[in-house]
Specification:
Layout: H1 3-18, H2 21-41, E1 49-55, H3 60-71, E2 75-80, H4 84-92, E3 98-102, H5 106-111, E4 116-123, H6 127-156, E5 166-173, H7 180-211, H8 213-218, H9 224-252, H10 262-286, H11 290-307, H12 319-324, H13 329-343, H14 351-376
Parallel strand pairs: 1-2, 1-3, 4-5
Antiparallel strand pairs: 3-4
Helix pairs in contact: 2-11, 7-9, 7-10, 7-11, 7-13, 9-10, 10-11, 10-13, 10-14, 13-14
Length: 377
């Protein structure tokens, strides 16, 4: 073995690698992104779940119970509602993850040494949050009950305080058995739509450029818009067929209930596709090779997986990552898919997510079309 020839080959490989600064940059950036996402976002600890409170007693005892929930970091009291319909609307729309209902007469029963019942409702569409949330709600109530028992024991004597002053009755909505497949199957629609269309769009157009056929298409009578529509239409059809396929398999194999409108879900899937196709089209305009396009697409895919709530609850992430998740279109579509499939809600309850997806689709697709036309000129 010749050391001189080996060193010359190694030198040549280094030179060839550094001649592709984009791929080299992505190679060094990707591990850092993975490190931060896995270090901060990859957690199943449930914290700061938005809680809606229906306090029908409005007594010092009910406020004392709310203080116990407020002191724990499992829940964050964001909504003080006036009726069960408002509480249901907040949970349906995903603004609240749980609801606490304190009945009238709660304070009088606690003062009289009787058992006061409170109701706690949890959104079961996310089993991770629901399971931990139920345990946390019961633990907080039991801790408060124990504190009240100690106070009674000091006042009346141990023999008169056998009955617990607080009984919490829990109820899980939409997914009572906390089946994880009910949560993952609707989410897979969004993940497949994003991954498939992004990869296919970016790679297909770059492949045309590598083979030299893009220039041949550019000199045909086709306009830039016609060329773009012709290239993207097959990917749209393939993605929609995959979405239907996931729904069918989810129902037949995993028993996932479809409680909402399938047509609404497909329509909003098409709206979400506009964002993923736009991202893929944009990547195709800034990359030169298929490998570079695939690596660039991972820069969009990784944050989407970790910050959208696909695997890990957003409420458990640091504040910085929670704010960053608002820039992820998949976050909004996962809420849409899970809400329609499991909760059976309509477009009125999903208006904030629909509006966000519409804004993303216009901005991203507009930028991608502008870049695509510029590369053809």
């Amino acid at each position: 073995m010749s050391i001189t020839r080996l060193l010359a080959l190694i030198r040549k490989e280094f030179i060839q690698t550094f001649r592709d600064p984009r791929s080299l940059t992505i190679t060094f950036i990707m591990p850092l992104i993975q490190l931060f996402l896995l270090g901060y976002a990859a957690t199943s600890d449930v914290r700061n779940v938005p809680l809606a409170v229906l306090d029908r007693d409005r007594s010092a005892a009910s406020r004392d119970l709310l203080s116990a929930y407020r002191a724990a970091d499992y829940y964050r009291i964001d909504f003080d509602v006036t009726g069960e319909a408002e509480l249901k609307q907040l949970i349906d729309s995903g603004q609240a993850g749980a609801g606490l209902i304190i009945p009238p007469g709660y304070g009088d029963k606690v003062a009289a040494g009787q058992t006061a019942q409170v109701a706690f409702v949890v959104d079961g569409s996310d089993p991770t949050i629901a399971g931990t949330g139920l345990s946390a709600a019961q633990f907080i109530a039991q801790a408060k009950a124990t504190s009240l028992l100690v106070q009674r024991a000091a006042q009346l004597g141990q023999g008169n305080v056998a009955r617990s002053p607080i009984e919490i009755r829990t109820q899980v909505w939409y997914n009572p058995d906390l089946v994880s497949a009910y949560n993952m199957v609707p989410a897979m629609i969004g993940m497949i739509l994003q991954f498939l269309t992004l990869q296919l769009t970016a790679s297909a157009i770059v492949r045309e450029r590598e083979r030299g056929t893009m220039e041949q298409l550019a000199v045909t009578p086709l306009s830039a818009v016609e060329l773009m529509i012709g290239k993207l239409t097959p990917f749209v059809l393939i993605a929609m067929i995959d979405a239907v396929e996931i729904l069918v398999v989810g129902v037949l194999v995993f028993g996932v209930p479809i409680n909402g409108s399938i047509w609404l879900l497909l329509a909003l899937s098409a709206l979400f596709l506009a964002t993923t196709l736009g991202i893929g089209l944009f990547i195709s305009t800034i990359t030169k090779t298929q490998r570079e396009a695939q690596m660039s697409s991972m820069l969009f895919t990784l944050p989407a997986i970790f910050l959208s709530g696909f695997f890990f609850p957003i409420a458990a992430m640091p504040k910085v990552l929670q704010y960053a998740s608002y820039a992820i279109p998949l976050r909004y579509f996962l809420i849409v898919a899970r809400s329609i499939v499991l909760k059976g809600v309509g477009a009125d309850a999903l208006w904030p997510e629909i509006r966000a997806l519409a804004i993303f689709s216009v901005l991203i697709m507009g930028l991608a079309v502008w870049r695509f036309r510029k590369t053809l000129d």
